Amino acid sequence: MKKRYILAIILTIALVLGCLQLAWATPEKQDAFLKITSDPVDAQVYLDGKLIHKYTPCTIRGLTPGAHHIEIRKSKYRTEKRNVTLASGENVLDFSLAENSLFYMWLCLPSLLLGALMTLFLTVVAEFSGIVIGTLTGVARVINNKASNVIAGIYVDFIRGTPLLVQIFMIHFGTPPILGAIFNNGQPIPINPFVSALVALSINSGAYVAEIVRAGIQSIDKGQMEAARSLGMTYRQAMSHIVLPQAIKRVIPPLGNEFIAMLKDSSLVSVIGMEELVRKAQVIVTRSYRPTETWLEVGLIFLLMTIPFTRVVARLERRLKIND
Q1: Which residues contact 233 (CB under 8 A, 6 or more apart)?
Q2: Which of 39, 100, 153, 239 has the fewest CB atoms below 10 angstroms from its CB?
Q3: CA 285 to chain centre
């Protein structure tokens, strides 16, 4: 009888211990699976340094929970790497791939070239207007007319003594209230950025061209004017037919240098929203957050635009020097 009680107690204790062991036992870990997506798609997936021959988007199954190293590679894009700790069950990773530097610059090129064309157009038109303004002003500074000398001198000194950026602001932001007070009952009349840029660059160029023309005229020996006058020519005829043709030959190289300087200075009109090369680059940078490649490309485009003109100016200088 006692043996039965002892056996029953032993079985009961064993049963209780077994239940407790089942309750406290650690469940086995389940396999992990990983869903990988990327923008753009079709990127190769490397798991722990090994190519697994899968392309995004994809799902990798049968992974061991824990730490893993994931790499996403795609031609023309930067490799993205990530250390992850996978949990049992489903895990999701999303990658955003950035273009490599050369591919990024190639994608930006069409927009920047459009801006470069606008820069060239602005420079050509402004320089042509500046030559007209500067020639008239330069002549006005050397003729025997005190009033024209003073007015031309004030214009040249003011433009050359103030920054181009300030002149752009004065025309684009300072002129509308004046126009409004005259023509619109005090309401400012806004000016198109292209018009403001063109006027500012033309006026600025005109002042520097005026000094070039003045120096060119004064470099001609005074005896030329005296000889022309002694032959019965008027002052205007002597200036038009004798002095100016010789002066033009001497001012061509400096005018070429002025064009190159204006090509670079035209970047300042970006501050008023003019869609030229620098403004295009600013817009691209705000979208891509990649200033290094963008501004490097802008610098290269400016270099490619200025080098041909630099070579032309140097060749003109050599040819004119030989002819002298």
Answers
A1: 241, 242
A2: 39
A3: 8
DSSP label at 77?
B
Nearest to 214 by CA among 137, 313, 320: 137
Provide CB contacts within 8 A for 301, sequence distance 6+. 112, 113, 116, 277
Q: In the chain, what's the furthest Cα-to-Cα distance?
A: 159
Please state, in angstroms and rounded to a whole number, the distance separating the CA atoms of residues 204 and 91: 63
CA 62 to chain centre: 49
pLDDT tens column, 78-98: 999 999 998 888 899 999 999
Indicate the pTM of the whole model: 0.79
Cβ–Cβ < 8 Å for 29, 65: yes
CA 31 to chain centre: 51
Q: Is the dihedral of CA 114, 119, 122, 124 positive or negative?
A: negative
Cα gap 138→177, rounded to integer Å: 31
pLDDT in tens, 198-251: 999 999 999 999 999 888 888 888 887 788 878 888 878 888 888 888 888 888
The two tokens of residue 24 are 């406290």
* Strand, coil or helix: 67: strand
Helix or strand (DSSP H, E) at 162: none
Amino acid at 105: M
DSSP 61: E
| Tokens (6 digits) for 85 | 């700790």
Judge contact between 281 and 112, C-beta under 8 A.
Answer: yes
Q: In the chain, what are the domains?
A: 32-98 (2.60.40.1120), 102-323 (1.10.3720.10)
